[in-house]
Amino acid sequence: MKAxxxxxxxxxxxxxxxxxxxxxxxxxxxxxxxxxxxLLASALLSGSVGAxxxxxxxxxxxxKRSFQMQMVVVTALDLLxxxxxxxxxx
Length: 90
Description:
Layout: H1 2-29, H2 36-58, H3 65-89
């Protein structure tokens, strides 16, 4: 069970990281973007570490304060969910 949860967390963070990279690439190419709602949802589904790393690595969404504030809220919610899962597993 713990291995499955760890696997999920790794996958969720890799997906979030990749989504931020893809969106930055699409922005540079002038192509259709990944909606902010999707980026935030990927972070909420336990991919917040990958999202923050993606923002930093790709320098993406770092100047948009409203998005950063939403990311702070999503990260807090993600952390609460993770704490709840850990407590339920005891």
